[in-house]
Amino acid sequence: MLSARFRPWHLLPFSLKYARLRLRRRPVLVNFEVTMRCNARCPFCDYWKTSSDMKAQELRSFVDAAVAFDPMMITWTGGEPLLRADLEELVHGVHRAVAPVWMTVLTHGAMLSVERARALWDAGIGQFGISLDYLDERHDRARGIPGLTARILTTAERIRSEGMTVRFNTVIKDDNLDEILPIVRAAEAMRVGVNLSVYTDFKNGNRAHLLGPAHQRRVDALIAELLAFKRRRRGTISNSDHYLSQIPRWVRGDLTTPCASGKDTVHIDPYGGIRRCPDFPTDGHWRDYTGYEPIACDRCFYACRGEAQAPLRLNRFQDLVASP
Ligand code: SF4
Ligand code: SF4
Question: pLDDT by residue (tens digit) across 173-201?
Fold first, then answer.
């Protein structure tokens, strides 16, 4: 299964919840951004510049929002969510209120120990998503955290060997196109998963890693190899075949489908504000959410945007039941 937390019989309550959300036109996935603070130093994101004074304004509970949306999936994100010492409490409260729910925590991994992972897993987390864009010290430099890659690789394997589900969150950029398959193969050997996304400059305008016409042939070849990998072995790469196959179109600028962010997925910031997606400004309090219309925006091709448009085909079902 996508998460070791679940058994095949869980598909039934999740399917019922999915049908109810679709009928009510409510988001299937809600991101809870628990803090904008971060102790990494990524050059393509300004969250780490958030003042520590903002800590006082962060929500102390996400239960009300979770109950109001009652989604199928929740992503605990930031900033760096593990900076919240009360993250286990936040997760546990929400899990108790809206299970069944598939919850992932996204982290840069520098503070993730096996003990913390166990506490979060017991609170209700069903997957640890750890950012990993390179297999060597380039990743340490990109995050501004010395020794990070070695730590991630060791911790991920230990967490997995304790029966918990780990996936690398890997962003495809201009300078790691040759690194993607090695990351996928390393994940396969470690029996952890990989979720791929595509770099965007929308976070702070840093265009240094954008994919463009100069990368098109390599992107086309990479995607063909990733799809071939998936045909050979499902479970390691959690992206849908549909999402992967659309990446070359997005790089070419051929993807003109309006973005459904805010409809199937929605983002709640640390202060209770709601956004259609992580990189759009806050529109008001989450209590005032009445839905978003699709928007003609093409600034990113994050997995959350692309996966929301993936049709429910047999191979999507195969991805759901396969394990890393
Ligand atoms: S991209 Fe993530 S890890 Fe990097 S500074 Fe932003 S929030 Fe922190
Ligand atoms: S394409 Fe969609 S998810 Fe991406 S930045 Fe635009 S509105 Fe947000």
Answer: 999 999 999 999 999 999 999 999 999 99
Mutate which of 46, 108, 267, 279 for ligand 1 pocket (most atoms within 8 A of beta carbon): 108
Which residues 6+ apart lie within 8 Å of 13 measured at CB? 100
Q: Which residues pair with 268 in a beta bridge?
A: 32, 274
Distances (CA, A) of 196 to 35, 90, 132, 207: 23, 27, 10, 19
Backbone torsions φ then ψ of 15, nearest 5 degrees: -65, -40
Torsion angle, alpha carbons of 251, 252, 253, 257, to 10: -80
Domains of the chain: 8-321 (3.20.20.70)
CA–CA separation, 261 and 264 (whole Å): 6
For the Cβ of 129 lying below 6 angstroms from any atom of ligand 1, the answer is no
What is the number of the ligand closest to the CA of 49? 1
DSSP secondary structure code for residue 3 in this structure: S
Pocket test residue of 41, 48, 139 for ligand 1, highest count of atoms within 8 A of CB:
48
Taking the C-alpha atoms of residue 150 and residue 95, their distance in angstroms, rounded to an integer, is 32
Q: For the chain, what percent of residues have pLDDT higher than 90?
A: 83
Q: Are 270 and 35 in contact (CB under 8 A)?
A: yes
Report the candidate in 117, 110, 118, 46 with the shortest Cα–Cα distance to residue 83: 110
Helices 148-161 and 114-123, interaxial angle, to 10°? 50
Beta-bridge partners for 212: none
pTM value > 0.70? yes
